[in-house]
Amino acid sequence: MTDPIRLLIADDHPVFRDGLASLLDPLPGIEVVARASDGAEAVAMVEEHQPDVVIMDVQMPVMNGIDATRAVVAAHPGTGVLVLTMGEDDGTVLSALRAGARGYLRKGAEQDEIVRAVSTVHGGGVVFGASLAARISEVLAPPSRPDRPFPELTERETEILDLIAAGRNNGQIAQTLFLSPKTIRNNITSILSKLQATDRADVIIRARDAGLGRD
């Protein structure tokens, strides 16, 4: 007998979150193992429950769904993330893709469409609405040149590096990006490691030479 797909649902609206769980959990082949009310809780629950698939809302408190998706995929690359949200604007779709989501559906999707999407994502496939096909092709096409001066860094790390190069200290960076000082310290440690930099001064020089940190 095939094991059921272990599913985590992350959405800050309890009516939608619990309603979706009530729809999907009784179905054969699906087991809802956890429910999260914000992005940070989703990341923690993925670590605790090890789901196969996460249905992730985008607009959530504490940590949004895009950042949560990025964190989940980085720590658990075998876990598929299916973004299920109200909007379908280019910026959100592309951000979800770049964060590592394998699927993107609107909340108006029918139950059977969501079930098929969960199954496809669990199997390693990618699911997006037909209206998104052209945009997805653009995103998946190899870039002709790097989008960022240090492509080995994540978008968040590049953002922090830009502020470091501008002369901001950790506290100022945390305040600007609405992140905790610990998160900033962790990102800076990662930046130093990825760039094989000796210290913060070395990072600042290289970042400014690449055009960062200039108003």
Radius of gyration: 19 Å
pLDDT averaged over residues:
86
> Could you name the CATH topology of the largest domain?
Rossmann fold
Q: Which spans have pLDDT < 50 for at least 5 consecutive residues?
A: none
β-strand amount: 5-15%
Overall description:
Helix 3 runs parallel beside helix 4 (90-99), helix 7 (155-165) packs across helix 9 and helix 7 (155-165) crosses helix 10. This protein has helices spanning 14-24, 39-49, 65-75, 90-99, 111-122, 133-140, 155-165, 170-177, 181-194, 200-209, and strands at 5-10, 30-36, 53-56, 80-85, 103-106, 127-128. The protein is built from ten helices and six strands, in the order E-H-E-H-E-H-E-H-E-H-E-H-H-H-H-H. It starts with a strand and ends in a 6-residue tail after the last helix. The longest helix has 14 residues, at 181-194. The chain has two domains: 5-140, Response regulator (Rossmann fold, 3-Layer(aba) Sandwich), CATH 3.40.50; 155-209, Winged helix-like DNA-binding domain superfamily/Winged helix DNA-binding domain (Arc Repressor Mutant, subunit A), CATH 1.10.10.10. The chain has a six-stranded parallel beta sheet, with helices on both faces. With 215 residues, it is of the alpha/beta class. The radius of gyration is 19 Å and the shape is elongated.
Q: How are the SSEs placed, and which strands pair?
A:
Blueprint: E1 5-10, H1 14-24, E2 30-36, H2 39-49, E3 53-56, H3 65-75, E4 80-85, H4 90-99, E5 103-106, H5 111-122, E6 127-128, H6 133-140, H7 155-165, H8 170-177, H9 181-194, H10 200-209
Parallel strand pairs: 1-2, 1-3, 3-4, 4-5, 5-6
Helix pairs in contact: 2-3, 3-4, 7-9, 7-10, 8-9
